[in-house]
């Protein structure tokens, strides 16, 4: 008798699931996954900014505080500084032409003597 009861329970446990239950569980899991993906995408858009949002021709990225907008502003500042430094370097090279003797590499023996002569120190005073 116990054998027949156990066999019936085993067969019931082995029965395939109801198709409606399977589909319902699948769709519930799929819905949860899509909600999580949308929330993650929203958070990424809020943090980094949407792609194409900060194109240079728009010029309205000043109102955004996302990482993308901040990086664009930083790159603009670095480019402006680069242009300014190039202009300063050009002005300095135009006004202060380097002396040809400074461009030559000093010999290893005369470097101490040359430095002392430029400083106006005589050889007798250094000893």
TrEMBL record:
UniProt feature coiled coil, ranges = none
Pfam families xref list: KCNQ_channel
Instruction: Check the record and name the InterPro entries matching this protein.
Output: K_chnl_volt-dep_KCNQ, K_chnl_volt-dep_KCNQ_C
Any one GO MF term held by the record is:
voltage-gated potassium channel activity
Q: What's its membrane topology?
A: Multi-pass membrane protein
Q: Where in the cell is it found?
A: Cell membrane
What keywords are annotated for this sequence in UniProt?
A: Cell membrane, Ion channel, Ion transport, Membrane, Potassium, Potassium channel, Potassium transport, Transport, Voltage-gated channel
Q: Potassium channel voltage dependent KCNQ C-terminal domain: which residues?
A: 1-96
Q: What is the reaction catalyzed?
A: K(+)(in) = K(+)(out)
Recorded GO cellular component terms are: voltage-gated potassium channel complex
Return the protein name: Potassium voltage-gated channel subfamily KQT member 1-like isoform X2
